[in-house]
Amino acid sequence: MKQSTHDTLLREASVGAVLAHRAEIEPDETVFTFLSDDGQDAEEVTYLQLHMRAQAIASALLESRKPGGHTLLLFPPGLDYVASVFGCFQAGVVGVSAPPPQPKRLHRTLPRLTAIAADAEVESVLTSAFIRDAAQQFFQNDALSRAEWIATDALPEVAKECVVEPDLNALAFLQYTSGSTREPRGVMLSHRNLLTNSEIITRAFGHRPATEDKGVIWLPPYHDMGLIGGVLQPVHVGAPCVLMSPLAVIKRPARWLEAISRFRATTSGGPNFAYDLCVNRIDDETCETLDLSSWRVAFNGAEPIRAATIEAFSRKFERCGFKKRSFFPCYGLAEATLIVTGPDRDDEPSLLDVDARAVERGSIQPPVDGEALSRLVGCGTPYDEHELVIVDPASGSRCKEGEVGEIWVAGPSVALGYWRQSAETDDCFGGELRDDPDGVRYLRTGDLGAVLDDELYVVGRLKELLILNGRNIHPHDIEFSAEAAHPCLRPHCSAAFERGTAGSGEAAILLEIRQEENIDMEAVIGAVRQRVAEELDLSLAWIGLCGAGEIPKTTSGKIQRNLCRTMVEAAEISLLAGPPVAS
Questions:
Q1: Which of 236, 316, 336, 445 could form a disulfide with 198 if both were Cys (CB 3.0 to 4.6 A apart)?
Q2: Under DSSP, is residue 484 helix (H, G, I), strand (E, B) or coil?
Q3: What structural domains does the chain harbor?
Q4: Among 219, 447, 221, which residue's Cα sits nearest to residue 332?
Q5: Quick one: which of 428, 372, 463, 389 has its CA closest to 185?
Q6: Per-residue pLDDT reduced to its tens digit, 520-577
Q7: For the chain, how long is the longest CA-to-CA vector?
Q8: CB of 542 within 8 A of CB of 578?
Q9: pLDDT in tens, 101-126
Q10: What is the C-alpha separation between 407 and 462, in angstroms, rounded?
Q11: Rounded to an integer, what distance in angstroms lies between the CA atom of residue 302 and that of residue 271?
């Protein structure tokens, strides 16, 4: 098929039709390879094989329901999950993605799953025979007990092609938010949202079809970065991708870079903490075995991006062939499908030294001698028919260049809204600029940032902002400082929050420690107090220490600070040191 016909299909056909097209023009090309946890064994699937598996799932879905119904995808990361995503698209059924409950944390993960299933009004569940049989004991008199459970690994092949062509503006997928600041909500994504954002990623990353590009993705497929970037993008652009288990990479980060080296990947990435894990936990001997010279796009997003991380990673892995200009700091969110802004991929990351106190006061200013210094990372500019504005959230007025405000976004990647939450949809997706003659409705992201010289700098979350004695302090600044105070503190495992009334409250922090013998808890607390005081000129009113895994996180690894505060106040977290927090 000619390239012009292919380009038209990417613009006008559904996501399921894109896979069917790939299966027709390059049936025997491998599209996904899934590595075992140890990285030794690999399961591969071609476009045709994936299409046939998706067709079997689509056929099973349409046997008992019409297009438009809601189906929960309940799988661990792997090719069964990938096939089920495309099976839903090809059946015109709305997929609902959620991670399976964790056996060791059922008290947290099981209620979240049942709440999502009830909210999404699921009619069926796609899963494996093993999970179907094991899960029956957990679900009684709820949405999941009433749903039809379909074991995709027990389905027969089908000979008849069945690809439903839905309205591109209709609901295609419910992507539940990770719940870092509130309860998870179902973001309604249309086929057009998914296709538009996939095409943006293709151009932003400079992806090319066939064998010229290859990805390595270990991110959870239940969330935007893993789903859009790891599952949909390879099929959209026609470039193969190696998939890995997130847990395998968290346990041993070297597996990630070893896969990039082994498969000569050109695109890979993750949140900032993943790069820190590589810096801190990959030894020199392992570095000698890595060749990262093929890595052209190292995207970094989904949480605050630290300049120190970019510098440290670039220094450590330069000897492995990694180039600093490969770093691709970007900004996005589930409510905008995935990516919103990014830099020119050929430029080195924009690292900007600023006056930290000026940022607290609401503007980006050059550093002043003797004042606290902060280094911000630029996240580029918005893509293709998308508009980004910085707005004073109180007045709705557009901020001047360099002023910090809420990030508002408009464009074809912005989702349809929140499922069954009309008031929240109106509030978050109905932002109106004061004195705007065009009447554009914007997505209010809840993120704080500023634009300087056409570059977006993200500085924090509006709902997590600590207002202390007239200062606006972002919790991650406190956490980064505190975690560096003592070697027994676990990086990316702390939660800073405010106790008391906003504006007149006090700063508190809970930190996880490594379980080691003979730790002087009071010395650790003293080191944290001193470091935060010296670096941020901030007095911590309460410091608590707890064991590994106590601080609540979302399934994508984000700290749930508000939930952490609630749990500490309710004495639901076992403290190793520190007094209870008074509510």
A1: 236
A2: coil
A3: 3-251 (3.40.50.12780), 331-463 (2.30.38.10), 465-577 (3.30.300.30)
A4: 447
A5: 428
A6: 999 999 999 999 998 888 999 999 999 988 998 876 677 888 889 888 988 899 899 8
A7: 73
A8: yes
A9: 777 677 767 888 888 999 999 999 99
A10: 10
A11: 5
